Amino acid sequence: MKTVSILLLATFLLPHFPAMANEDPHAALPDDLRQAVADFDRAQLRSDEAELDRLLADDYVLYNSQGQVEDKRQFIEDYRGMRLEPFHVEDETVRLLGDAVVMAGVATLKGTDLASGQPFTVRLRFSDIWRKRDGRWQVAFTQATRAP
After folding, report:
1. Alpha helices per DSSP H over the chain
2. Residue-wise pLDDT tens digits, 44-61
3. Any idea what the Cα angle at residue 58 is, between residues 135 and 112, rounded to 5°?
4. Of 9, 13, 66, 107, which has the highest C-beta tally within 10 A?
5. Could you tell me the maximum CA-CA distance found in the chain, to the nearest angstrom?
6. Which secondary structure element, helix H or strand E, spans residue 101, and what is its range?
7. Distance between CA 60 and CA 54 in Å, rounded?
8. How many CA atoms, within 13 angstroms, populate the side-chain half-sphere of residue 73?
9. Which run of H or of E encompasses 58?
10. Which of these, 28, 36, 19, lies nearest to 105 by C-alpha position?
11. Average pLDDT along the chain
12. Contacts of 14 (CB under 8 A, 6+ apart)
């Protein structure tokens, strides 16, 4: 009887806790934001400067994993100098806050530094703050910290 009760309780509660139900954390995002997030990931993988320029707010700020503060121009410059391999975000958190959204997680980034030809691997815990301005979503702020 206890097993049946637990199963019934789980069946009732799981739809109310998406992380427990292994649902896509992006499912609750508006369609235009979900597309912008996918475009941003793709732009990073392709080092697509025009697309990064479109998706980063003009006043974008990055607190990078080395403790430095970068602006939009510096962020795009970083991606000009590397090639990333496809990555997966773990431990993802999404918080909708009206016309702003916090998206955070952990990603292991692997790639090649183009200047030296050296491969690199870095595991980062990051938070991106997206905001909707003038009808479009852009990343306004990122913080990245090295993760074990």
Report:
1. 2-13, 31-46, 49-55, 72-80
2. 999 999 999 999 999 999
3. 110
4. 107
5. 65
6. strand 100-113
7. 11
8. 0
9. strand 56-63
10. 19
11. 86
12. 20, 21
How far is the C-alpha of 24 from the C-alpha of 18, rounded, in Å?
8
β-strand partners of 61: 71, 141
pLDDT per position as a tens digit, 57-105: 999 999 999 999 999 999 999 999 999 999 999 999 999 998 999 999 9
If one counts every other C-beta atom within 10 angstroms of the C-beta of residue 106, the result is: 16
User: What burial class does residue 92 get, using C-beta atoms within 10 Å of its C-beta: 0-12 exposed, 13-18 middle, 19+ buried?
Assistant: middle
Q: What is the pLDDT of residue 80?
A: 92
β-strands 82-84, 100-113: how paired?
A: antiparallel
70 within 8 A of 78, measured Cβ to Cβ: yes
CATH fold group of domain 25-146: Nuclear Transport Factor 2; Chain: A, (3.10.450)
Instruction: Tell me the C-alpha distance between 70 and 64, whole Å.
Output: 7
Q: How far apart are CA 35 and CA 56, in angstroms?
A: 14
